[in-house]
Amino acid sequence: MSLESVRAFFCENAPEITVLVTEQSSATVPLAAAAHGVAPEQIAKTICLRVGEEIVLLVAAGTARLSNRKFKDRFAAKPRMLEAQEVLAVTSHPVGGVCPFGLPSPLPVYCDASLKPFAEVVPAAGATNAAVRIAPERMASLVHGEWVDVCD
Questions:
Q1: C-alpha angle 97/146/123, rounded to 5°?
Q2: What's the CA angle centered on 55, arms 49 and 59, to 5 degrees?
Q3: Burial (CB count within 10 angstroms: exposed 0-12, middle 13-18, buried 19+), residue 83
C-alpha cells in the first residue's frame, strides 16, 4: 500500500513526476545510487526521528551524517531514531523506502542543507525498490518542508 500512497500523492500534487520502480533493491544509499546511476550523496535519505514527544522526518543527502550538536542546537532536544515497526506505523513506509510523500497523516518534514548543492536528488518512494527524481526545492515545497542545517 505504501507505494500506492506515494503514487497517489504524486498524481494529485505533481503529476509530472514519475515514481520509478526498479528490479534492484534501493534500500540503502549505496544500493539506491547504483540502481539509479547517481552519486551516493544525491540519494535523499529520509530519517524518522523522535524529538521530545514529536515525530519528525529529516531528509538529507545520502552521505551526510546527522550532527547531534547541530540538531540539539536547532531543536533543543537530542534526536532519537525510531524502531522499524514504529517507522512503518507512522509513515506506512518500510525502512529502506521511507520518504516524506504519501503519509497517512501529516508529519513535520525538515530538509537538510546538504541537499541544496544538487539540481536533482533521488528520495525513496514508499518501497525498497521505488524512488523519484526531483529538485530539492521542489521536494521541500511539495511536502511543506522546512530547511535546516543539522548534518555534517
A1: 20
A2: 50
A3: exposed
The pLDDT score that the predictor gives to residue 115 is 98
Say if CB 26 and CB 131 are below 8 A apart.
yes
Where the chain has pLDDT below 50, the residues are: none
Q: Give per-residue burial for 37-57: e unless 16+ CB within 10 Å, then b.
A: ebebbbbbbbbbbbbeeebbb
DSSP states along 84-101: HHHHHHHHS--TTS--SS
Residue 9: CB atoms within 10 A of its CB come to: 21
Q: What is the pLDDT of residues 63-101, one digit of tens each?
A: 999 999 999 999 999 999 999 999 999 999 999 999 999
Q: How far apart are CA 147 and CA 140, in angstroms?
A: 8
Q: What is the pTM of this model?
A: 0.96
Taking alpha carbons only, the member of 95, 79, 100 closest to residue 145 is 100
